[in-house]
């Protein structure tokens, strides 16, 4: 049996890298049409690029038809190899930029949702200082769930993540940022909204419909949630806010997230004993990370903004 030889060239050209970037966008967007906005080119141009890449690789990467878009098994493997290649290129660019006195390169940060309203604006102030020190540095922020951020840091897609200090992997280095206080809330229209604080006890609140989070909680939050009558769930804090604001549920929210609605008279904190907890937030990085001048400059700025 004659082994089929791949038509892929012995060296990777700029054109090959461009095609791989197009394929990455198509795979992550779930199709050609969805990738048009991401890439800024037409669907027909994307189709031509994909046909070129499949021809150069000698592999079929995806299937399209009435059943929808899907990567082939070879397509999934090429996608994973492409991520490794693009991450290596970014590492190369970062290390070469580190040879220059000017602070250049990219900083890819993953941040958990709903943190921008925290009074402790260490991230914002540190990013401002980084931009002053390195005007040519490119900052990319990705808003993602904590597990996705941790994985992104591990696989090199992200240089740094900001996540709750919950179930952290041993392969990640963490540094404490701040703590986020949460308490029990109800909204205008709920029977408890105008009730007297003196009558608010766990026993009195245990029968009211409540929101239970489906995302991981810190140890300090488990007891405050354990006695709630969870008849609805939310995958993040914003989802919990949607449900609480209906006036049909009680539930926990970070104080900084609830503050605008509290000030507008739409939310009220329920002063019940044990009805609050704190969530520590940390930065996470790979322990075995390579030198990265932009990242180190950002970490230095964080140290200056307690």
Automatic annotation (TrEMBL):
Superkingdom classification of source? Bacteria
The residue ranges of the HTH lysR-type domain are: 15-72
For this chain, one GO molecular function annotation is: transcription cis-regulatory region binding
Q: Which InterPro entries match?
A: LysR_HTH_N, LysR_subst-bd, WH-like_DNA-bd_sf, WH_DNA-bd_sf
Keywords of the record: DNA-binding, Transcription, Transcription regulation
Q: Belongs to which family?
A: Belongs to the LysR transcriptional regulatory family.
- Alphabetized PANTHER family for the sequence: HTH-TYPE TRANSCRIPTIONAL ACTIVATOR BAUR, HTH-TYPE TRANSCRIPTIONAL REGULATOR
- Identification of the protein by name: LysR family transcriptional regulator
